[in-house]
Amino acid sequence: MFKKILIANRGEIACRVMRTAKRMGIATVAVYSDADDGALHMRMADEAVHVGGAASSESYLVAERIVQAAKDTGAEAIHPGYGFLSENAAFAEMLEAAGIAFIGPNTLAIGAMGDKIESKKLAAKAGVNTIPGHTAAIPDADKAVEIAKDVGFPVMIKASAGGGGKGMRIARNEDEARSGFESAVNEARSSFGDDRVFIERFVEDPRHIEIQVMADSHGNTVYLGERECSIQRRHQKVIEEAPSPFVTEELRAEMGKQAVMLAEVVQYRSAGTVEFIVDKDRNFFFLEMNTRLQVEHPVTEYITGLDLVELMIRVAAGAKLPVSQQDITLKGWAVETRVYAEDPLRNFMPSIGRLVRYQAPEETDHVRVDTGVFEGGEISMFYDPMIAKLITGGENREQAIARMRDALDRFYIRGIQHNIPFLAALMKHRRFAEGRLTTGFIEEEFPEGFNADYLVPEDMTLLVAVASSMHHGVSERGLNGGGTDAARNFIVFVDDDNRSEFQVRSSRAGGGWLVTVGEKDFEIHGIWNPGDPMFLGTVNDVDICAQVECNPVGYTLTHAGGQMDLRVLEPHVAEHQRLMPKKLPPDTSKFLMSPMPGLLIRLSVEAGQEVNAGEELAVVEAMKMENILRAERDGVIGEIHASTGDSLVVDQKILEFE
Question: What residues are labeled active site?
């Protein structure tokens, strides 16, 4: 067994690999860039080596520096995690030449399956179900349009070396094929250093289901069940679960058989994932094979009881798999949500900055948090915006989802924007609860995007009651330094514009509070003091966690995907509140402003130019993704405030209309 390994990655995956290595008694070496100096993965490792500048191309993607770091520290093997060099055959060859073990598959498998074009050809020859399409690299936009017409719209334009949703575009007509080709090429070049793209038929209403395989160098290959990965936004997975609510035992066996068959054709070794598109009739087609550990591997670990990272390390050291196919049993259910630094209320634009407060849910046998950040740390514009992966499990799907909803309530992040409200909204969505999933779920259920309307609580009176009990306790301490049994009457206003108001009566009862909102009674027990980030207690004997923000005039409470701004007032004060005018936001409709921090890589218009609604105005790159900003109405461009190549801050003016 190895005595020391280097993890050629950063963030949560580097930390996750280190946890298993340490449990196995293996020393770890971290690599870090300028931007990651002091990062959690650097702190967790036994040793850390600086490998270059903040940009990935200057650090984590420089194979020579990674190899040299391993040599300098005496690391016997390298685990690549995912992304960066994890599917780079040339990197694996460099390690082999240097006598350093690669904790991953052989170069044959990486080369054959890491290239999406070649992998589809190989899969077809091996008898694996494949999607109709054009698998050769496409030279230009004109050819892309021609091929798309031949294949038949809609089509998917995909980067050959792609992954993580980058370099992918759906085109439903010739114009979209042309613009989609250009964007896919640009993203592929900047993210992977490989601008080849291909086209295949886009399967309508598909599910994205993948099979986890594990193989050793002794000819043993097994599949570890499936993962449902259909909840995606911009082709980036948001929620994963295992098993799938759609897959039957027969379908699982057939998909597993084909996945193993494909792995054996390329003499696969280590962990790998064969991804399939499955239609409503349970016909499945090969999508790609990821020759690395997947982001969503924890859900498979929960239902199989296996540590995939440990198996990868042991296999790389020459050991046989400790299990055969008949040993694999699936028990329980697991769900994973990806917590991202992005603002769902601003079209999911990336959010960078310092984590002023960061408190993850407590880990248990059924709650797991994989993260690479800490309170006071920074979310950088240079890397993927993932903050953490939250995984919950249970005996069945309903229990796993219930635990996820509770865990999301307990995930407290301040200083940057994050997508937890969106994740909570997905968890409580009826269609999700019923398991009626497709890759178009988010687009179909949130056609206008995610907005404040989705933050309305299922039961507003619940949060009104909690806020009233909190306020009653605070006001008692402020008045006389101690408690009293005297009942209090309050008027509770919701939002700044007094959208709703509630009559409330609150009194102490049985060591807690009895709060009446209208005609509904709530018995509340819990501990909360000003400054506490959460109210933890029970309401009518049901456990509740509500995040709390105090402000000079009230409270903001967040619970179960709902959020309310509340003002708890004495009746005589409420009379004045009703007379307060509504504060109107400033009019910014004439400006195009950057919705995120990023680089202005293209300004597509000039002063005096007439534009139509939907026309491209500018392209801003942030966290390796191109974001096209389009005109919302017809108009004429007035003054230009920014130039191509400018680094933009959020809400910075790019241009204005006449």
Answer: 288
